[in-house]
Design brief:
167 residues, alpha+beta, five-stranded antiparallel beta sheet
Length: 167
C-alpha cells in the first residue's frame, strides 16, 4: 500500500479549468461593460428634450446663459445642428485658484441637434474634474459647476415649455 502512486484526477482538473475560464469570461464581459458605461456616463452629459426644436433651444440657451454669467461661443451653426462652447469667467477664476490645470476644463463643449421629435444636447461633463485633479476643493467646485450647468440646461427646456403654454 505504501508503494502506490497517486494518479492525477484529470476530470476534476479539466472541470476546474473550465470553471475558472468561464468565470473570467463572465467577469470580462459584464464587469468590463459596466465599468465602460459608468465612465462614459460620467464623462458625457447627455440630455434629450421632447417637442423642442434645436433652434429654439439654442437661442433660449444663449439668453439664459447670459443671465447666469456664462458666455456662449459659436463653433459651428447649421439649421438643425449647433456646436457651441459654454463657460463662466467667474468659475474660470475659481478653478485657477484651486489648480492651474482646472481652467481648461471649465469650458464645456455642447452639441445641440435634432432628434426628429425633440432636441438632444450632448457635452463634456465638468464633474470629471474629480478624477483628474484630487482634492476636496476641486471636488466641491466640480460638483457645484456641474449642478449649475445641469440646472441651466434643464431650465432652458422648462422655460421653452412655459413659453409654449402661454402661446
Amino acid at each position: 500500500m505504501d508503494n502506490q502512486t497517486k494518479t492525477p484526477n484529470y476530470p476534476f482538473i479539466v472541470l476546474t479549468g473550465f470553471g475558472i475560464i468561464a468565470t473570467l469570461i463572465f467577469l470580462f464581459i459584464f464587469v468590463y461593460q459596466k465599468s465602460v458605461s459608468t465612465v462614459r456616463e460620467k464623462a458625457i452629459m447627455e440630455r434629450a428634450y421632447p417637442k423642442v426644436k434645436p433652434q429654439e433651444y439654442y437661442y433660449e440657451l444663449k439668453n439664459i446663459a447670459s443671465k447666469n454669467g456664462f458666455t456662449v461661443l459659436d463653433i459651428q451653426t447649421d439649421t438643425n445642428y449647433f456646436l457651441i462652447q459654454l463657460y463662466s469667467k467667474n468659475y474660470i477664476e475659481k478653478a485657477k485658484n484651486v489648480s492651474l490645470s482646472l481652467p481648461p476644463m471649465t469650458v464645456i463643449t455642447l452639441s445641440i441637434y435634432d432628434l426628429g421629435d425633440g432636441t438632444a444636447v450632448v457635452g463634456n461633463n465638468p464633474y470629471l474634474w474629480r478624477v483628474l485633479v484630487e482634492g476636496r476643493a476641486s471636488d466641491s467646485l466640480a460638483k457645484e459647476y456641474y449642478e449649475l450647468v445641469d440646472l441651466m440646461l434643464n431650465d432652458v427646456y422648462y422655460s421653452l415649455k412655459e413659453k409654449k403654454k402661454k402661446l
